[in-house]
Amino acid sequence: IPSVSSIVPESCLLIVVGLLVGGLIKGVGEKPPILKSDIFFLFLLPPIILDAGYFLPLRPFTENLGTILIFAVVGTLWNAFFLGGLMYAVCQLGGPGLNHIGLLANLLFGSIISAVDPVAVLAVFEEIHINELLHILVFGESLLNDAVTVVLYHLFEEFANFEQVTILDIILGFLSFFVVSLGGVLVGVIYGVIAAFTSRFTSHIRVIEPLFVFLYSYMAYLSAELFHLSGIMALIAAGVVMRPYVEANISHKSHTTIKYFLKMWSSVSETLIFIFLGVSTVAGHHYWNWTFVISTLFFCLIARVLGVLVLTWFINKFRIVKLTPKDQFIIAYGGLRGAIAFSLGYLLDYEHFSMRDMFLTAIITVIFFTVFVQGMTIRPLVDLLAVKKKQETKRSINEEIHTQFLDHLLTGIEDICGHYGHHHWKDKLNRFNKKYVKKCLIAGERSKEPQLIAFYHKMEMKQAIELVESGGIGKIPSAVSTVSIQNINPQTLPLERVIPALSKDKEEEIRKILRTNLQKTRQRLRSYNRHTLVADPYEEAWNQMLLRRQKARQLEQKMNNYLTVPAHRLDSPTMSRARIGSDPLAYEPKEDSENLPIITIDPASPQSPESVDLMSEEPKGCSGLPPSPEEDEEGLVMRVKEPSSPGTDDVFTPGTGDSPSNQRMLRCLSDPGPRPEPEEGEPFIPKGQ
């Protein structure tokens, strides 16, 4: 039903399906299944996170990493403590049913409900096609706040068992945040390097190549969870590290398998999670307390809005591209909660947390409100506020070259200024990667392949696949096959040279790539800019001029093809002039009349006196030569002036009669010569003028 799915997000529809299924099972008399935390964390969550980490847009993520970390760490801590403190106050003032809930239990509840959920964010933001900056900010926050959530959850859970919490426990809890986050990243990097190294030796067993990607990624997640580290951070790190090296080693079929299997696996997990949320809502034990639930919902929204406003005010002091009020609204409105909060609440033990059912009821209420209300209204609000949408643009060789050029330029500027910014460290990392890591993790000559050729090879393969899938295999442009990257014959480099030299084959291939892709840059509609595009005021006029010239040339060709000349008969002088203009070949001068004076007729306006020009008639006063006897006998010969083509300029295009003698003749006839210079006593401007 497209009319429904265009208004209601898919996640909402799946929760409704889960509610219906759970109600049906309960109506039959059976007990509906509940989404157990082990099933969720071990089987349903990893595919979604691996898909997000493996295909993470690395450049926008690293460029906005500081902003994402501030939102993920400081924002989540603010939400947890603000919400937990206020809920503790509500419990103290809320009457006898809430007085027994202590501060630690409320802080634990705040840490569970404060984290933005990556599954819910992905489900909603993928459908509204928001611009890349906002998407990576909200989605990156939802991925990286897992470390904060895990630390706070386990911290408050342990503190609830203590009789007394000391300052040392608080300091150790603070340090455990760094251990959990950095430890998860380290585990992911180790497994990513192992996966890349393993893929170097799989050329003879292509069938099981995709298995290594899934195996090592899942091992990274389980190893991190085993030591209470952040499994989500481990999965993201493993996917980001292994992808460039694995894709260089594995076959294209294996790459396609990994891509589609990950997409299918993550979409199935997402569907099951939302359906199970609906079923668990019907099946679970609920304890409804109006004061607690409404306060939780209200304070969640207040904490999110305040946190985003304060943090953005601080972040904009350091950002070049500022976050506008519209961006801040979408970031605050996109803080969706989901199944991670539900599963963490379900993990609570009844012995230490007797109010677990009330916590779960409040969590489900917040999840339903954010997914249904915010998820359904965010698309109309994006259209209403005219927030910039995502633009589907294909990367090109031209854009890649200019991006690399700007990176090198900014690195050089930082070196000159003595400021070691992120461009400097990024350049250091790229050099280390190219010099050492690629040689160890990429097999064969692909490790020495220049980046431009590798990128072109990737684009060529992608374009060929698109053409095959669209059925346009017969229309493959010649540019696709101009460069055969497979036939690179690398030469051994001399040892004494510090700078590695490219072989002649590679240099020639780079030249071919540049010739093929950079010579037609004028045909592209608009050049790429990272931020805003300023319209070129001359571009439209230039295109109109080219179109007019092209139409004029086509018209001239048609006239030359279809113009017919009628039979000659005696007519008036005006008709004779017109006929001469229409058929100049019939009035070509004789072979022996080259030195005779010529009258040129302009066929554009035969009646005007300016249409007859004396071109070769030189009077005796100008040339100083007596007239020849042939001139007296033959008289004047008429020659037709050829009409100028519409694409040429009559003023600047030299004609057939523009020889130096003709120009001298015209000057003799029309120019009386320079004025005599004024004498010393005579004023420069005569009187009376």
From TrEMBL:
One cellular component (GO) term of this entry: basolateral plasma membrane
Region annotation Disordered: where it falls in the sequence: 585-689
Example of a GO biological process term: regulation of intracellular pH
Record bears the keyword Phosphoprotein: yes
Superkingdom classification of source: Eukaryota
Family: Belongs to the monovalent cation:proton antiporter 1 (CPA1) transporter (TC 2.A.36) family.
Membrane topology annotation: Multi-pass membrane protein
Reactions that this protein is recorded to catalyse: Li(+)(out) + H(+)(in) = Li(+)(in) + H(+)(out); Na(+)(in) + H(+)(out) = Na(+)(out) + H(+)(in); Li(+)(in) + Na(+)(out) = Li(+)(out) + Na(+)(in)
Keyword Phosphoprotein: yes
Protein name from the UniProt record: Sodium/hydrogen exchanger
Subcellular location: Basolateral cell membrane
GO molecular function: calmodulin binding; potassium:proton antiporter activity; sodium:proton antiporter activity
Domain Sodium/hydrogen exchanger regulatory region intervals: 479-564
Transmembrane segments: 6-25, 37-56, 68-91, 103-124, 136-156, 168-198, 218-241, 262-284, 290-316, 328-347, 359-382
Coiled coil: 504-531
Ranges of residues in domain Cation/H+ exchanger transmembrane: 8-382
Gene: Slc9a1_1
Keywords, ordered alphabetically: Antiport, Calmodulin-binding, Cell membrane, Coiled coil, Glycoprotein, Ion transport, Lipoprotein, Membrane, Palmitate, Phosphoprotein, Sodium, Sodium transport, Transmembrane, Transmembrane helix, Transport, Ubl conjugation
A Pfam cross-reference name: Na_H_Exchanger
